[in-house]
Amino acid sequence: MKLFSSVNDVTDLKKFIEEALILKADPFAHKSLGKDKTIGLVFLNPSLRTRLSTQKAALNLGMNVMVMNLDKEGWALETEDGVVMNGTTVEHIREAAAVMGEYCDILGFRSFPKLQDREEDYSESLFNKFVKFSGVPVVSLESATLHPLQSFADLITIEEHKQIAKPKVVLTWAPHVKALPQAVPNSFAEWMCKAQAEGMIDFVITHPEGFELAEKFTPGAKIVTDQTEALKEADFVYVKNWSSYKDYGKTLPGAESWMMTNKKLEGTNNAKVMHCLPVRRDYELSAEILDGPNSLVIKEASNRTWAAQAVLKEMLEDLKK
Amino acid sequence: MKLFSSVNDVTDLKKFIEEALILKADPFAHKSLGKDKTIGLVFLNPSLRTRLSTQKAALNLGMNVMVMNLDKEGWALETEDGVVMNGTTVEHIREAAAVMGEYCDILGFRSFPKLQDREEDYSESLFNKFVKFSGVPVVSLESATLHPLQSFADLITIEEHKQIAKPKVVLTWAPHVKALPQAVPNSFAEWMCKAQAEGMIDFVITHPEGFELAEKFTPGAKIVTDQTEALKEADFVYVKNWSSYKDYGKTLPGAESWMMTNKKLEGTNNAKVMHCLPVRRDYELSAEILDGPNSLVIKEASNRTWAAQAVLKEMLEDLKK
Amino acid sequence: MKLFSSVNDVTDLKKFIEEALILKADPFAHKSLGKDKTIGLVFLNPSLRTRLSTQKAALNLGMNVMVMNLDKEGWALETEDGVVMNGTTVEHIREAAAVMGEYCDILGFRSFPKLQDREEDYSESLFNKFVKFSGVPVVSLESATLHPLQSFADLITIEEHKQIAKPKVVLTWAPHVKALPQAVPNSFAEWMCKAQAEGMIDFVITHPEGFELAEKFTPGAKIVTDQTEALKEADFVYVKNWSSYKDYGKTLPGAESWMMTNKKLEGTNNAKVMHCLPVRRDYELSAEILDGPNSLVIKEASNRTWAAQAVLKEMLEDLKK
């Protein structure tokens, strides 16, 4: 594996989940694999779970880890080509990525969309430039449109907690105070659609009118705007806010009725509730759910380690070839 | 040891000091103890000594270390329960602590008091919530009211430098330009009172009227407001500013006469001078003392490593059980 | 080696280059040398290459690494002596350096000039105080007037890429949007003059009138203000902006004609082009050069690791004595 930026980078989804669970059962079994190998984790935006879980995964594999918070360390990158750099950006991503590639065997990279120009965000030009110029295997730590380590961890969590062979998984829009990227829901949809195609789950998406995700990430998903209808007999409910893709970057004020509550769980098959975190308590998701027996949110976060470790293990094995 | 937040978490004080000094003499003797164990050091406020010394202690024990400067990395935590999170806080401490507990075998946590609501600060609700929700052993890296790693290092330093069996230790208030927490003096008092109760030292506190520390941290301490009287025959003088506990968070402008100087040392038993650092030169403590033979301030800082290492060693041993 | 702050700290320049290239060929050969040794990397200014490459070098030698971004972590140091510290600085460099020296076997330190008082900057008082009070071997990660790890890496790069026994190396001034320190050009000149004295290269400096570097760093260098003349038959062109030493800290607006381009390379011996990075594309140096076959900028950055590793290896060997 040279690149992990989407479910499409995974050859065999079921085997990959299995691999992650084997690593979870025996985290240090491959500690010699990463000996004298260094991963650089590059963040253009703050990170808690992604940074710590990927760092932990790398340490479990015996790697060295170097973290670079470019935003906090005052390193403004130029991302456009053909620009005369006489402004505020201090270094072009061409040089910055290439240099980091010289110091690291594998790189992780996080960037966020600006939510202003849909075409630009959805081209993933920043992430793709980083991949191109770094010259080493790259794992996405979240890009403008996808967050594959999160979705892989989510799928692992579903596999661990499913009570029936083919559970019903519902992704539901939730309210939020600000405009958020579509990366997590896009990515969750992409992974769930793949899982559905492989017969592992049934997948439904529900959101208010106008909050349709980009079609390329939702092949085969059932999409309904009636939340009550969508939640019926759900085994897993994945709660997440996102801003509009159609009316790009716009939010929906006054949508508090979309908050997930115990009341809404009544129509489900005693569904387990998921969220990628951080979560706005009693705004996206009720505190009663988060503190109750149906919540899987901490377990999802915990599984981030094994998702990352499965990815890094494959990359390290490829480096040895 | 599951928690280190106060002298009360120590079973046998003398043995604990001894343990720290054994580690100082042979720092790498227990390097296999921390193999494949990870400590997360979480700071809500900047740290120099605490971060580096605890990191060093963990490395000496063979642990992995992950540092999280939540304040600098832009992660505003919600600490109140029952709040609708529609404001500026991005994550509740319930989730943040639980998640970090999933990635780490031991956590260190630093928070400061706001110095606005005494009851809130002295309830240690933030620290206690972190402990409760993290689900792993926690070492205080300074809390709203105590700084036990500092005080333990101070006591180790006194043990190393005492010339008589039962030295006189004086904690003296010092001037400062801003309102500081009471955590260091509370903690120093707590540890010295325990040491006094065990016959190791005599302990005196001196401060201006109105700067009495909370009584629960000063059992058995002799408290006087005449600094000259207090310093007589002192073997160790611990210099520190703190804001008022009574008139909560208030400072005392124009108190420059309380600054410790060589002149004041004349009445002592050629006392060694201590300070937790950082110190305001020629305002809290004279430069002549800091640069002279009586200063122990660097040695105290150095002993932070062994204090932390003794604590982490006990925690690691308990994890193995 | 107890100090690495200038080419004058190097005993045998040719042997030192050779040592770095041996390490490059076999990076992990001395991994036991740094066992249980800790390096602290202290930055008063942001760093990308220096931090990562020095961290990598230390890891290659088996060391522990602790990074301290004092500027970002809100730790304002007092550097003047005899000051009553009643202002905004929280800690004096005397204590800060001494404390860090207690936790680390080797320290790296970066500071920048303020470009306001030439005498102060060129006294290197801040760097020298850090060295003095830390009490351990110190490697400069760039100081007010020199950047020796960069220059050493540059010289290694020249050695690797030279086509003739004694290549012509030209340091040329370049335009920039803001006033930059003279540390990189001073340092490059210092190393190249030493290399020239040892018969390794011919060295020429070219810059606009008024941009003469301090004479103490340019002994034996040929200095011309006609760039075209200087570039003739050059084998290596080192491009860098610096502010004026004479009219201290002043820039030269409207100097775009000094930008290095392919057109200017025509007069050279198909010269390789170097820059320490970060570089302002199409302002200091044309994108066509950076993206073309003559650029060595990434290779220079890559060689930072081996320069740092050669220095740290010598320091570690001295610690064992």
TrEMBL record, chains A, B, C:
Residues 208-313 form the Aspartate/ornithine carbamoyltransferase Asp/Orn-binding domain. It catalyses: N(2)-succinyl-L-ornithine + carbamoyl phosphate = N(2)-succinyl-L-citrulline + phosphate + H(+). InterPro entries: ArgF'-like (IPR043696), Asp/Orn_carbamoyltranf_P-bd (IPR006132), Asp/Orn_carbamoylTrfase (IPR006130), Asp/Orn_carbamoylTrfase_sf (IPR036901), Asp_carbamoyltransf_Asp/Orn-bd (IPR006131). One of its GO terms (biological process) is citrulline biosynthetic process. Pfam families: OTCace (PF00185), OTCace_N (PF02729). N(2)-succinyl-L-ornithine binds at residues 142, 176, 240, 280. Residues 5-160 form the Aspartate/ornithine carbamoyltransferase carbamoyl-P binding domain. Catalyzes the transfer of the carbamoyl group from carbamoyl phosphate to the delta-amino group of N(2)-succinyl-L-ornithine to produce N(2)-succinyl-L-citrulline. Is essential for arginine biosynthesis. Homotrimer. HAMAP family: SOTCase. This is N-succinylornithine carbamoyltransferase. The gene is argF'.
